[in-house]
Specification:
about 45% helix, alpha/beta, Rossmann fold, 4-stranded parallel sheet, 2 domains
């Protein structure tokens, strides 16, 4: 049986997240959806510069970086990247220099995560386009410069989404199962934002490891569902291999729904705005406008269309990202 003790014994880890995060009932929100039992896994409360899901991944990624005697980290993402903000915070906490390669959209200059990146002391390299070749070229140039200076950089992929990072959500699935057992909750669905694949891959592997029966529903905040799905399968299989699990995962094992993405990544949608306002005004919990807001819009629509039945228990993994609300103040006010 896979458990936290086994993971700790096999892989280097630094304790930087506030775990376990609460599994919180939100009855007023559930009543607004017609009597669905909704539970929120509060991964927005992991700590590290206002919290978020990346803290789980960074425990294992920085554990590996420190075990390899690295002295700085490089990662990359969009201008309002939650992953980059939490990487900067985690690096500061363990004494590593942090370099961020950021690409458009740079939403809300001087606001949200961009403000926090600066406060946390990250050194930022800006790329003017989103083309992957330009981003890779800038990252390679930075890496070469640091190595030439005698540094020992550790490169973290977008979203921390590789098999080492996915260990954070293997443990997250184990944690969720233990909390459901303690509370006597039998979940039918678990919803969450699925962008760079690491969160969903960890959940997929962890849920199978503990024999969970619920359906995992990843909601894409920007990428095409088919593309994200293939990436989730790839990282899930790599993670299972890392854990020496005999299981293989296929496309039919993974659900990624891209109906709530809107025109593009980082673009606010009316459904997202409604989800943010509804949860805030029924439960006092804030969602972000890029990831969790769109994922919650998906959960709401599933309930309204009857794919979640009255009385069923579902969980929502709140992946954090709320600093971005301030960068989207104008759009939220207009909405």
């Amino acid at each position: 049986m896979l458990d936290e003790q086994t993971l700790n014994a096999r892989f280097p880890r630094v304790r930087i997240a506030n775990l376990p995060t609460p599994l919180e009932a939100v009855p007023r929100f559930g009543e607004a959806l017609g009597g669905v039992q909704v539970w929120i896994k509060r991964d927005d409360l992991t700590g590290l510069a206002l919290g978020g899901n990346k803290a789980r991944k960074l425990e294992w990624l920085l554990g590996e970086a420190l075990s390899n005697r690295c002295d700085c980290v490089i990662t990359f993402g969009a201008g309002q990247s939650n992953h980059c903000r939490q990487t900067a915070a985690a690096a500061a906490k363990v004494g590593l220099d942090c370099y961020l390669v950021l690409y458009p959209p740079f939403h809300g200059e001087g606001q949200g995560n961009l403000l926090l990146d600066d406060l946390l002391g990250a050194q930022i390299v800006r790329v003017e386009g989103r083309d992957s070749t330009d981003v890779q070229r800038s990252t390679d140039s930075l890496l070469d410069r640091l190595v030439a200076e005698g540094r020992r950089p550790y490169v973290i992929p977008v979203g921390g989404s590789n098999p080492v990072g996915a260990l954070g959500y293997v443990l997250g699935a184990i944690e969720l199962g233990q909390q459901c057992d303690e509370l006597g909750v039998n979940l039918t669905h678990v919803f969450f934002a699925s962008g760079s694949a690491g969160t969903q891959s960890g959940l997929v592997v962890g849920a199978r490891a503990v024999g969970a029966s619920y359906q995992l529903i990843g909601i894409s905040p920007g990428g095409k569902g088919a593309d994200v799905r293939r990436h989730v399968v790839e990282v899930s299989n790599q993670t299972a291999a890392l854990l020496e699990m005999p299981n293989r995962f296929e496309l039919e094992d993974v659900i990624v729904d891209d109906r709530y993405t809107g025109p593009a990544y980082g673009t606010l949608t009316p459904e997202c705005v409604e989800a943010i306002r509804l949860l805030a005004r029924t439960e006092g919990i804030l969602l972000d406008p890029v990831y969790a807001g769109k994922a919650m819009a998906g959960l709401i629509d599933y309930a309204r269309r009857g794919e979640i039945k009255q009385g069923e228990a579902v969980a929502f993994i709140h992946t954090g990202g709320t600093p971005a609300l301030f960068a989207y103040a104008a759009e939220l006010a207009d909405a």
